[in-house]
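In pairs, describe these two lines:
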Amino acid sequence: MQSVFQLKKGRRTVKSFFISSCLVLLATGCGAGSIRIDTESGEVEYYAVLMEGRKIGHALHVRKTGADVVTTTEMLSMVIGRGAISMSISTAETCIETTEGKPIGFEYTEDLGGMGGKKMTGRLNDAGRLEVTTADLGIEQKRVIDWPTGAVMAEGLRLLELEKGLKEGAAYQAKIFSPALLSAVNANVRIGPTTNIDLLGRVLSLTEVGVSMNMQGATFTSISYVDTELRAQKTVMPMMGMNLELIACDKAFALSENDIVDFLEKLLIPSPVALTDLGSTDSITYLLAPTGPAPLSIPPTDNQTVKLAEDGKVLITVKPAPAPPGAKLPYSGKDEQVLDALKPARYLQSDSKEIISLARQAVGETKDAAEAARKIENFVNEYITEKNLSVGYASAEEVALSRQGDCTEHAVLTAALCRAAGVPARVVSGIVYIDDFDGRKNVFGGHAWTEACINGKWIGLDATRVPNGFGPGHITMAAGNGDPADFFAMANMLGYFKIEKITLEK
């Protein structure tokens, strides 16, 4: 459910995505971690990371230049609270580019699971494609992906910002490649006025730089305050109903003791009533009320209807669609959206030999699509033997080899096996009802599951909840190919709405 840094002398006032991605991962859990990076022979800048005014970690930026190559490393370390437990998260990415800002490759490390961490390296080959090696849980995977046309990394972005300058009212776009997400995101940048800004007791005259990014239908905004040399001194990003801040400071304060902010309160939404006996409930209608400035954007699906109510509230009726009978394997229709849900994807490697082998084991001789989907749901529930929060975010192929993970790992493996068996499938993120989570009673929490398309209907599958599976206690907020970015729509809404009323129909 993975860097948001402002850099010196024209360094980035536009964001990449460490912090956003890490906070998405909090919905599924992460463990203690620590990453060390080399700060010798480079320009180093330190930041304090604050949430709601309390220091929860630090970030640093190291830029090294050679005759032909520039390397830019950004590291984030922070402590988060999940109820009575506090955990550390560390991520680091190094962008390797020419002095003209052309990408060469990257290195990315995250320590979220307390099991040695995940490492990715990427290098552009002579054909301009990105060769990626991922090492996670002792498993090494290699793949080749297309480089997003026009995408830049740290040095390319630095040069773009120097070119654009800080004239008030100026606006421009940047396409930024994130090693953590293995994809690029379009950012819209607008230069605002120059005002006096308080930086932990220091007051400086700084220029406001607003940045907005759209991922999976959700818009993310942030405000940076930069000096005349484009050195960002402060960044504010609303997140989960709170404000996340990065403030430039000296090394001693950046590395000083952290406070602990309990993120669990933001990741869980109280239910106005206890939902008992969901198995016999036909449908549930939820009244959601926004608590933030942005309107709620929740998609209708075959399993839920969405209606706007007064004052920006939203009525959602969740009624799980039954699987239509008679659909055969493999899918032979011509619907382009459905056909796309059969193709291999970055996190759904349905063409790999491991996934194909598991799909055959799960489905056996079954030719009925609905029966195959249910068999896969049950198979994944049994196949993932270590059901824990130790994995940050794994692809289907990685899960096939490790046999461990939480809801996201169940969801991507289910979707990949469905695709390999000829059943169109996609990964869904949203919230689900939980009667007891870490002592919190009757709440909704971030969750991931799968939908399979059978005879033109998208049917819910939840391998973490066998035998009950998907039900009216699930509310869908986004769907896609299982990429981490697919979870941003859901994560962006957490903390910005409440459930005012629930009506059950038996």
